[in-house]
């Protein structure tokens, strides 16, 4: 998936919190189970009922797989040399951004609202110097801990 540089070590792999995605996964799960609850009425409907069952099942499986894949492959990888942000938007749509510690000007995190505060997730922003791309990783579990880790690694590189 990502090619490490020589003598580079992965220190932490960060995923988005499942809490903000729970509503979407719940609805997709209901949609996935719906054809099975309607199995007998659909099968009594003959060919149209069987086709409806098949379409409901195939589409719900596809959307559930796509949502889980998007969540699983959206990562923030923290190594001893750089931070890598991988955003999986769809099946064939991935954005990879990386910043070495020497190029990071500022690390900030934000938790906004009662839900983010109670469930301990927020947004991490890495501001890069010059023309380097900034990194923003949303819905991070325990953003203060990740913020401190990245700042510690930045300071180790400067010492």
Kindly describe this structure.
- The protein is α+β, with helices and mostly antiparallel strands and 159 residues long.
- It has 2 domains: 49 residues; 84 residues, PH-domain like, CATH 2.30.29.
- Helix content is 45%, strand content 31%.
- The strands form 2 sheets. Strands 1-2-3-4 form a 4-stranded antiparallel sheet.
- The longest helix has 27 residues.
- It is elongated and about 75 Å long.
- The protein starts with 9 loop residues before the first strand and ends with a helix.
Key features of this structure:
159 residues, alpha+beta, PH-domain like, 2 domains, 5 helices, 45% helix
Helix-strand blueprint:
Blueprint: E1 10-15, H1 22-37, H2 39-44, H3 46-72, E2 75-79, E3 82-90, E4 93-100, E5 104-110, H4 113-119, E6 121-128, E7 135-141, H5 143-158
Antiparallel strand pairs: 1-2, 2-3, 3-4, 5-6, 6-7
């Amino acid at each position: 998936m990502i090619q490490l540089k020589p003598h580079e070590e992965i220190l932490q792999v960060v995923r988005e919190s499942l809490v903000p995605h729970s509503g979407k996964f719940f609805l997709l799960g209901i949609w996935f189970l719906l054809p099975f609850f309607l199995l007998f009425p659909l099968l009594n409907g003959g060919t149209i009922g069987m086709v409806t069952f098949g379409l409901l099942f195939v589409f719900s499986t596809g959307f559930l797989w796509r949502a889980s894949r998007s969540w699983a492959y959206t990562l923030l990888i923290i190594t001893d040399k750089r931070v890598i942000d991988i955003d999986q938007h769809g099946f064939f749509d991935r954005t990879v951004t990386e910043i070495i510690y020497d190029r990071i000007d500022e690390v900030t995190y934000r938790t906004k609202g009662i839900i983010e505060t109670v469930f301990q997730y927020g947004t991490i922003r890495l501001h890069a110097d010059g023309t380097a791309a900034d990194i923003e990783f949303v819905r991070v579990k325990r953003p203060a801990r990740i913020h401190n880790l990245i700042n510690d690694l930045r300071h180790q590189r400067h010492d």
